Amino acid sequence: MPNNQGDEIRQAAAVLVKEIDRLVKQPVRIMEVCGTHTVAIFRAGIRQLLPSQVELVSGPGCPVCVTPNDYLDTAIAYSRCDDVIITTFGDMLRVPGSSSSLRAEKAVGADVRIVYSPLESLDIAASNPGKKIIFLAIGFEATAPTAAATVLTAEKLGLDNFYVLSAHKLVPPALRALMADRKVKVDGFLLPGHVSAIIGEQPYHFLEREYHVPAIIAGFEPLDILQSVYMLVKQIHTGTAVVENQYSRVVKPGGNQVARQVLAQVYEEADATWRGIGVMQGSGLRVNSKYRRFDVRVRLPVQVENTCEDAACRCGEVLRGLVKPADCLLFGKTCVPEHPVGSCMVSVEGTCAAWYKYGAWRWQK
Amino acid sequence: MCLAIPAKLIGKIDRLATVEVGGITRKVSLMLLPDAQVGDFVLVHAGFAIQTVEEEEAKRTMELLKELTELA
Ligand code: SF4
Ligand code: SF4
Asked: What is d(CA A3, CA A10) in angstroms, rounded to the nearest whole number?
C-alpha cells in the first residue's frame, strides 16, 4: 500500500511538472514567502524538477531572519539583569546581536531557557516568584495568537512576574511593502499555509486588486508545492491574478476566528522594523493599553547598547529576493550555520541556511 | 521556527487536549480551537492546536491529482 501511494505521488508529480513545462512561455519569478516552504522546496529537490524558466526566490518568511539586531540587543540587556529569566524558542539563542548573543550570555551565567510553548513560561513564573520571566514573543500570525493566549492565561492566573518582549510581525503588510518596492520583481506568490490558517484568505485580496499578481495559499508537502506552482503558472498563462487556496484541507476562507479574536484582544497594530529592510508601516504588533502591564519595555525599561550591524551582511537583500545568498561575500566563509553572522543563517528555515545546507550554490538557480 | 504538525486529538478536558503523533502523546492547549473534538486531526503549533485538518479534503486533493494523472 505505501508503495502504491508513493507511485501515485510520483506520477502526479510528473504530470504536474509536465503541465508546468507546457504552460510556461516566458521566465517567471515566484516568491515563497514562508521559510517552511523554502526548506520543503530544497528538501524535495523541487527547483531541479522545474523548467529553468521558473525561478523560485525566497522572501522574508522566517520570523527569526527578520528580527533586527536592536531587538536582540534589548533581550541581551534584560538577560544580564540578576532577577530575570528569559524564555524563548530555541533559534533565538544563536541570532547575533551587535556584540553578543543569548547563547554567549547563557554561557556566562544568564538564565535563558528554551521553551516549546510560550505557556511553559507561566510554569516557570509560578515556580520562581522572586524572578521576572520575560518571553521573547516573535513570530507571524501563526505564532502571535499563542503568545496572546499566554498573556490572557497569565492574567487569569494572577501572575505578576510574567512579561513579553514583543516583536511580532504581520505578513500582508510585508507583501504590500514588497510589491511597492520597485526593485522587487515577483510574478506570483506562494503564501504561507500556517499563517493563512489563522488569517484566512481575505487579507491577501489586495494583491489581485491593487497589484494584479496571482497568489496561492500553499501547503507544505512536495505535491502541495508543485500543485501551487502549477496553479500560479496557469494563472500567469491566462493573464488572471486571483488569490487561490490550494491548502483548503487546513486553511478555511475565514481563518481561525477564535485565534484572531484572542490576537485582537491583546495586541494592536504598530510599525515594525524588519532586519535589513527597515521600518514597514503597520507590519507589527504591540501589546495594547489594556494589557500593557505585560509589556516589559513599558514596565521595566532597560539600558541597551548602541546597535550596529555587520556592513557586509546582505540579509536585507536576500530577504527581498534581490540577491542570492551566494552573492554575499560572507556566505560559507565567515558566515556558516555554526557561526552565523546574519540571521538568515540561523534558523533552518532561513534562506542562507537552506542554501548552505542543501548545497544550492552548486547549481545556482 | 514555526513548524506546525498535524496530530490526532485523543483526549480532551476543558481547554486542554491530549494529542498523538507517531505514537507519542503530548498535551496541547485548545484555547485557540475550543471546538475541536476527540477524533479530529488538528494542526499543532507552539503547544496550541491552531486549526482542524480535514481528512476528507486531503483525500480530495489526492483524487484531483489522480484525475490529472488519468487525463495525461
Ligand atoms: S511556518 Fe509561519 S513562522 Fe514559520 S516560516 Fe512559515 S510563516 Fe514563518
Ligand atoms: S550569508 Fe550570512 S551575512 Fe550574508 S546575507 Fe546570509 S546570513 Fe547575512
From this structure: 10
For A83: left if phi > 0, alpha if psi spans -120 to 50, otherwise beta; the answer is alpha
CA–CA distance from A324 to each of A26, A121, A296, A306, A316 (Å)?
A: 21, 38, 37, 29, 11
Nearest-Cα residue of chain A relative to residue B16 = A119
CB A66 within 8 A of CB A95: no
The rounded distance, in Å, linking the Cα atoms of A48 and A222 is 13
* CB atoms B50 and A259 under 8 Å: yes
CB pairs under 8 A between A and B: 115
* Count of residues in chain B: 72
Assembly ipTM: 0.89
* Radius of gyration, CA atoms only, chain A: 21
Name residues whose C-beta falls within 8 Å of residue A86's C-beta, 6 or more positions apart in sequence.
A75, A78, A79, A102, A110, A111, A112, A113, A134, A136
All three cell numbers of A266, joined, read 491583546
Interface of B with A in 3-62 (CB under 8 A): 3-4, 28-29, 31-34, 43, 45-48, 50-51, 53-58, 60-62
Contact between residue A47 and residue A56 where contact means Cβ atoms under 8 Å apart: yes
The verdict on a CB contact (< 8 Å) between A139 and B2 is: yes
Cell numbers placing B21? 503523533
| A146–B61 CB contact, under 8 Å | no
Query: What residues have CB less than 8 Å from A40, skipping those under 6 apart?
Result: A46, A220, A221, A222, A225
Residue A319 near ligand 2, beta carbon < 6 Å: no
Considering only CB atoms, B72 lies closest to which of A18, A256, A262, namely: A18
Provide the residue-wise pLDDT of chain A in tens; the chain has 365 residues: 445 667 878 888 999 999 999 999 899 999 999 888 998 999 889 999 999 999 999 998 888 889 989 999 999 999 999 999 999 998 899 999 999 999 999 999 999 999 999 999 999 999 999 999 999 999 999 999 999 999 999 999 999 999 999 999 999 999 998 999 889 999 999 999 999 999 999 999 999 999 999 999 999 988 999 999 999 999 999 999 999 999 999 999 999 999 999 999 999 999 999 988 889 999 999 999 999 999 999 999 999 988 887 889 999 999 999 999 999 999 999 999 999 999 999 988 899 999 998 875 554 44
B56: left (phi over 0), alpha (psi -120 to 50) or beta: alpha
Number of residues that make up chain A: 365
